[in-house]
Amino acid sequence: MARIAKKKTEEPLEKTLWKSADKLRKNMDAAEYKHIVLGLIFLKYISDAFEALHKKLTTGEGEYEGADAEDADEYRAENVFFVPANARWSYLQAKAKQPEIGKDVDQAMEDIEKENATLKGVLPKQYARQNLDKASLGTLIDMISGLGLGDAAAQAQDVLGRVYEYFLGEFAAAEGKKGGQFYTPGSIVKVLVNMLEPYKGRVYDPACGSGGMFVQAEKLVEAHQGRINDISIYGQESNQTTYRLCRMNLAIRGIDGSNVKWNGEGSFLNDAHKDMKAETIIANPPFNDSDWSGELLRDDPRWQYGLPPTGNANFAWMQHMIYHLAPTGTLGLVLANGSLSSNSGREGDIRKAIVEAQLVDCIVALPDKLFYNTGIPACLWFISRDRKNHNFRNREDEILFIDARNLGEMITRRNRKFNPADIARIADTYHAWRKNSPSPNPLPEGEGLNSAKESSDNANPPLPEGEGRGEGDKYTTIPKALLENARLLRKKQTDAETFLWGLLRNRQLANAKFRRQHPLGHYILDFYCHDKKLAIELDGGQHNDNKVKQQDQIRTAWLEAQGITVLRFWNNEVLANPESVLESIYLVFGSFVSTPSPNPLPEGEGLKSTNSLLVEKKSSDKPNPPLPEGEGRGEGKTYEDIKGFCKSASLEEVRKHKHVLTPGRYVGIPDEKDDGIPFEEKMKKLTTELAEQMEQGKTLDARIRGNLAKVGFSL
């Protein structure tokens, strides 16, 4: 039985850590403080990774027999940064309460740069500054000390990546307008990356900020079982402190950032990759930038489609990217909505030339409030060099318009984000249109969603006693005591286990068959999917104990030796942030389900909102009912225009609109759905309600007059 007493759910680790760190900020500006915090987090990460390898080298067993634990080459050979003795976290933590701790951290950063050439000029060295309270700095070091970042377990859960990305977003929100200079909200980055699918070749961002586009591209490749070495990262950033954030952001994920360059002049005046042609370009350049030194670049060869106005860099950015696009390359960039319709400074002529060159593939209108630095809506441009036959159908005489202004959900009073279902709907629509194939599934053949239909016939059949796995597993006999223990545990699930099982059972998640409390070898796994060789473990507070941690590591190592991927989540993480948990699972599967549930789960079960990551089934033997038009991948579906959402327009239609590319002009508005209530009946009900409200208004007016009269005022 699940526990009846409900415990207060704890916040995710990254959110709790942020609140603690933000309290220590005191009066320091967020723009300065972010470098202090993120620099320390980076230092803790590389120190943890160093110590883990240092321990193996010191033990000297197996392949490490006879190794020198202080030889920097031993670490470089395994892509681990070498950390000098005075820069190791244990050394700094021991000095955290001393008044000279700021100087010690600065010296540590300098010494790490000396030992690791790829970090030269990247790490912050501003901890000795006078306006940084040293007591708060020491407390911050102590707080981060409790966070495991670079060991094997933390790397498997991408703890550092989650914390670093969350902190970047929170600092961007705290800085407001300035935050947009270094951070593009994650949901926008995911739309761009999922639409472009940069699996191979050079990936370029000429205004790369803190590197979010690169990180998401790497995640997509990993999610689709690709090789990270198949893509090469190229970028440029004009703000040196932002460039440092980017290099650290890439380094913590093992991404080669050597081709990400900094110079104060920027991509227009001093292009760091003059002759480079990229297969994929992804960027969110500054909106409507009037200070881009356009007057110095009047004869630049990049302006193949028209001279950009000196007062607005939108079409300078676009043409800069087209110039760097490979013959079969594609690009996606974020621009202000004005780029779709403006005629000032001959922008209309440039837009017309690019359209008539048959380069524009797709335009996506975004909702407002997606950005931290501006409340105005923006749009996405997708441009392709070869629209005739490069892997897809000939689209030269068409442009796809997607109006996503009604998608997304408010996460604060000021900010909105796309959920995974929104991202998948936009990306799948584009992929279906581009391929014009019976199935708009964008994933490589043999990956992603199972093509078998989902129905309740596929529910898990009862397992014969002594068995618990599909054919082909290495262990075919389960000890009776272990089997009985597993059955007992199924009856005593924790709240988190019951909740997650409600989301995984009966092939609800990507048609994957999970089993709960599943015996394997000498262990009982909380959840196991044989087809994907995936184990999911949920941990409570007892897993903070060092002995339990050691047992967990042994258990994980054994499972991984059997070719099984292990995901670990905290119980409170499952209850407080289930969509993040499901997204992590999908990254292993290599796909996102784009289909919102047609049947919301009962109150208190599963996700209470749109169930955006699930494919829910009716409790009957019938297959799923048809999905709402235009939603999801839908087996056997081809692209169709949907009023109010998407439209494939011919070039002739675009010419009739004088090359204005605002999606609303093309997609129209959706047809109103008739609710079946006669107009007269509606009006009678509405007028009755209005009359009641007007009477209430009279009563309130009289009461207000009376109260004013009591204090000597009259109306």
Mean pLDDT rating = 79
Query: In the CATH hierarchy, what is the class of the largest domain?
Result: Alpha Beta
The major pleated sheet works out as: 9 strands, mixed
What structural class do helix, strand and pairing data support?
alpha/beta
What would you give as the CATH superfamily of the largest domain? Answer: Vaccinia Virus protein VP39
Strand order of the largest sheet: 3-2-1-4-5-7-6-8-15
- Give the proportion of residues in helices: 25-40%
In short:
The chain is an alpha/beta fold and 715 residues long.
Structural descriptors:
15 strands, Endonuclease, Chain A, 715 residues, 4 domains, Ferritin, four-stranded mixed β-sheet, nine-stranded mixed β-sheet, globular, Rossmann fold
